Amino acid sequence: MSALPPLPAQPAGVPWPTTGWPEARPGAAAAAKLAPLLDLAFSDPAPASLGETHAFLAVQGGRIVAERYWTGIGPESTHHSWSQAKSMTHALVGILVREGKLDIHAPADVPEWQGADDPRRAITLDQLLRMSSGLKFTEDYVDAGVSDVIEMLFGAGKDDVADFAARFPLAHPPGRVWSYASGTTNIVARCAARALGAGGEAFRDFMFRELFGPLGMRSAEPKFDAAGTFIGSSFCYCTVRDFARFGLLYLRGGVWDGRRILPDGWADYARTPTPVPPTETYGYGAHWWLGMAGPGSFSANGYEGQYTVLVPELDLILVRNGKSPLAQKDEVMRWMGKVADAFR
Questions:
Q1: Which domains are assigned to the chain?
Q2: Alpha-carbon span 35 to 20, nearest angstrom
Q3: Is the CB of residue 123 less than 8 Å from the CB of residue 108?
Q4: What is the DSSP string of 133-180?
Q5: Distance (Å, whole) CA 169 – CA 180
Q6: What's the rounded Cα separation, in Å, for the pair 261 and 214?
Q7: What is the pLDDT of residues 130-169, one digit of tens each?
Q8: 28 vs 6, 65, 153, CA distance in Å?
């Protein structure tokens, strides 16, 4: 495995965006390459190749260098995270690891798996975070009849998403096969709550006290199920500026304005590759995707084209929120790669 590219430090003299984002102009060459890409994305009617782009933000060197919004949407508008919330769940686990309340290499604390002869009791948090638990789960966002994720979020599982996901049997031995599953993240979110000894409003308070508050993510709106579990697979609404704040935390190695939020090495853990099938276009780390904006980049990805992309070599964060049908997914991801290339 090749070495991970170093994560850049906050440039001297650039304030942390806890209360407001510093701004700058992109370089002339980058601006010239970026303009037609943004013009395409925000054209009206929306281009068939991309679907609707509701908001875009680029941060380089800790400063906003480009920002654009769809008609009727602005900097204070919140956007659906969808699976970007998975990367936030990764951060919450990291905070509990920092506090000594979780060990990712120990078997996960899952009540449904505690039978003496239950092979699932060997599954570790690391295997869950790497989507390599071996659990059966159908991640399909279109076909309700065969989709476990739709049933979990909107059907029989919606009141207790973690219990719903934890009831699935093994399809493979733990740690052997990568398979992306939203149910996995909701199991992790409940493990975090059990380690903290708090769910519901108390867990929400923890999220704001330890993560959102220190970063100035005042728009963050996490959703919980009736059992009090953070629906970490899918639901944390934010402004694009707050998604960028979250990205900056990881781009800066888990440190914010001199305060260590995530344990040392946790951002590297997020971007250390997990073996994935050759059919996967992009790589996967631990609850973060790899490679959308070139080698060394990593990203929080969500359904319908929600992306927070980090490019360490360019000290660059790209955030895009919108509504792009599944058929446009690959083209939107290629567009994000082209936007990153504009800064090269």
A1: 1-79+239-344 (3.40.710.10), 86-196 (1.20.58)
A2: 25
A3: yes
A4: S-B-----SS-TTT-HHHHHHHSTTTT-HHHHHHTPPBSS-TTT----
A5: 15
A6: 8
A7: 999 999 999 987 776 689 999 999 999 999 999 999 999 9
A8: 26, 11, 45
